[in-house]
Amino acid sequence: MTNRPFKIGIIQEAVSSDAERNVRDATEKIREAAAKGANIVCLQELFNSPYFCKSQKCERFDIAEPIPGPTVQQMQALAKELGIVLIVPIFERQAAGVYRNSAAVVDTDGGLLGVYRKMHIPDDPLFNEKYYFVPGDVGPDARGDRHPGTSGFRVWKTKFATIGVLICWDQWYPEAARITSLLGAEVLFYPTAIGWHPSEKGEWGQPQVDAWRTAQRAHAIANGVYVASPNRVGHEDEPGTDGIEFFGHSFVADPFGRIVAEAGTDPAVLVAEVDPKVIEQVRRNWPFLRDRRIDAYGPILNRYLGAV
Questions:
Q1: Per the confidence metrics, is the pTM higher than 0.85?
Q2: How many alpha carbons fall within 13 Å on the CB side of residue 100?
Q3: Model pLDDT, residue 129
Q4: Catalytic residue among 45, 65, 186, 245
């Protein structure tokens, strides 16, 4: 790690039912990001498959792979070739009957730095994730490790920066962003699969995009970090329903919440510069982290948690 500026890349893509094609397409986009100077590249949530959680079908568990497994191993070889850090979100088979919505973090030498497993699991119409995914474990505090973490949240100290990874539904929880930032993350990556119910798009389409972006820009501001959120695009069918139209609008925000790179609703490769000096400057002038009142929050949280 250094205090020099570095570049991050995020990939926004439409996917098909052909997993090999999806991996090939992602590989091309990763190469494009690296050619534009990206040092750290993040793919979208469950990047190598359609969003299969639109219904509950047991055979869809067959999509899952171990980590490391065939897809992650291909990405490890690519990261080593290009000398970049890669964040690879896939459907993970951790053990028989234990499946996770996960992201492998791959280092510049192709080594596997670790795995983040999505902590918050939604259950909404066409987003039946609780059927497929076990939430990330609340594990022991690993402070002192090279890649410290607590309660399932982790950071990874890469060659370029300390990064945190959270996944999609985690976006709506300020606790996740705060914990990961306090662990030392300079960039929060949020690989995502979010979209519209076509019947709601006319009334709620733009407000949903605005809310999604606003929540994450607020995480950037409140924690003095960069936020990068790659989403998928395109309509994905599901028999008996109108399917989901994934709305893209991937973006990168700086610690002041300013959008420094953004996409629309077409496939895209975004590359943006991250400057650690901006993090330092914003935190000095808006010292939210300094002025936290843990002594005041504790009793309230303990009382609330004891009541639920």
A1: yes
A2: 20
A3: 98
A4: 45
